[in-house]
Design brief:
It catalyses: [protein]-peptidylproline (omega=180) = [protein]-peptidylproline (omega=0). 25% of the residues lie in helices and 21% in strands. The protein is of the alpha+beta class. About 6% of the residues have low confidence.
Length: 177
């Protein structure tokens, strides 16, 4: 299957971060975001098929979490985001208003039960955590942006937040544990 990456680029997997990244063996350049001239739609489908982890929640509850929680999220970036690029698009040009419209649509679909946050994040989130159904793993206070942390820690397991704005973009957060 085609990756949508420009000639010379390939997708590799980071063992340390357990995430895919983009590598050009000729130039030895590696990067987390896709290179310019990437066909975003083709890459989105390739990554959804070959680089998505089906995570299991069983077994992790026995860990000593030390006040940490586990959340998944769906991120929609816009041109004013701190880094307006993602694994889906090398350069994000949508306005903040357009991003709000997109994420509000996703929120409605999740809230209605038409889809889950994890299923939607796999193909639509601008965060590399999309490969893990949006799962950010366990984190404690002081590890995330303030707005994200505040919204996450008030959720109960299974609850989904309304749209939250941070410097990274617009998020919907689901508390997993």
């Amino acid at each position: 299957m085609a990756t949508g990456l420009p000639a010379g680029w390939e997708v590799r997997h980071s063992n340390s971060k357990n995430l895919p990244y983009y590598f050009n063996p000729q130039t030895k350049e590696s990067r987390w975001e896709p290179p310019l001239e990437t066909d975003s739609e083709t890459l989105k489908h390739y990554m959804g098929q070959y680089h998505t982890t089906n995570l299991r929640a069983d077994g992790v509850a026995q860990q000593d979490l030390g006040g940490k929680i586990r959340c998944a999220h769906l991120l929609v970036k816009h041109q004013e985001s701190r880094r307006p690029s993602s694994w889906r698009e090398a350069q994000i040009t949508r306005s903040k208003d357009d991003a709000y419209g997109i994420i509000q649509n996703y929120y409605g679909r999740i809230n209605s039960g038409a889809t889950s946050l994890g299923d939607l994040a796999t193909t639509e989130s601008d965060c590399p955590s999309a490969r893990k159904r949006g799962d950010l793993g366990f984190f404690g206070k002081g590890e995330m942006q303030k707005e994200f942390e505040e919204a996450s820690f008030v959720l109960k397991p299974g609850e989904v937040s309304p749209v939250i704005e941070t410097a990274s973009g617009l998020h919907i957060i689901e508390r997993l544990e």
